[in-house]
């Protein structure tokens, strides 16, 4: 216990978003017209950049650039969805271990009290000469009563931040069967949650079969969590994990996490197939989906979940100050952050950690450009890696693998660290509260189920 406590204390720096030693930009005179900043995409990069630019009092402490807040910026955030999505918690949402308001709070609630104007719509064109962002409005969603203003068709800007994330890849099978989905966004996670629930409640089925494609973080984390979802309900299921390459978790630099993940897959009896892809699909006599695999085997699938990243993501090239580069020069007022940015000489990309750090740098650099100060260069500081390996297990590796933690305590720490990384303080408290309650409830449920099992055996 003492060792665990020491580990927990050493991990606390992970929970505190790191703070750049930023010189404060000079607040501009309020007599000047406001500088218009349009941020396109409200994910980790875009939302955090918008909050940092607006120096929102509700922003997480690491995001305040120049307190007290600047009054010379007019910040507009554009996103087609009405919710920010904390993607690393999609596993918990899919397996009913977390609620939508913890994982995907509305922009309306996150931006309340800030100076950021939210426009719901998708950027359809960026006119660099005219300095306008064209916006295609999104059809209203019936699930919330959003009071967001209707999207204007064109937003003029002085500065723009491009933070549109990774595009969704196409599924291998064409046309994709109704059982297939790509696990990369909120609608897919909610669809998966619904399908898992209906598979569990389908008492006519003797054994369910789930096929997950892609042996990166998402494939491994999803497989272990889906296994736990079925076993917590006492329902039989076969979970298959297919990987095109010969190695799982190729991007992970943590040997500790890799070992813990392989152990979890083995313990949960996930059937792992390397060098294997889905070739074709058909139906058996009962209408059940059957997949033909590249190793010439077939497997039934009640659910087929793709997790792989797009082969050729469409990216904006950016210099180390995060200004978009084209034709050999940098656009001084166009910045790119997060998954959408391919930063010169950067070896790492594609994590929320990087998107948040880049959001800070881009926001600072916009303020510095306005004030005529020197721009910061983005340098990645790797804080470590956390993986969920089931409803009550995780693996954490920090400080280049010098600090590691596994099992139920790591699962709890991961959930609270993620709460601390929520974009606003209000959401951080709400998420920590919901996470705490969900952990207590799942422990209570597990105890109830154990007791019932004992009683059934005694009968
Ligand atoms: C299932 C899953 C689990 C993950 N787990 C982890 C993890 O544990 N740790 C980690 O560090 N990273 C994790 N990642 C990766 C991490 O979430 C991303 O690297 C991070 O979200 C990138 O932030 P972003 O702002 O660039 O993009 P996103 O967060 O994807 O946000 C992009 C935003 O742009 C919006 N958008 C798209 N097109 C347009 C348009 N045309 N106009 C306007 N808006 C647009 C989208 O609606 C979205 O809100 C995970 C990713 C997934 C899918």
TrEMBL record:
Residues 440-459 are annotated as: Disordered. Gene3D superfamilies: 3.50.50.100. Keywords: FAD, Flavoprotein, Oxidoreductase, Signal. It comes from the Eukaryota. InterPro entries: FAD/NAD-bd_sf (IPR036188), FAD/NAD-binding_dom (IPR023753), NADH-Q_oxidoreductase (IPR051169). Residues 36-359 form the FAD/NAD(P)-binding domain. The keyword Signal applies. Residues 1-17 form the signal peptide. Its cofactor is FAD. This is FAD/NAD(P)-binding domain-containing protein.
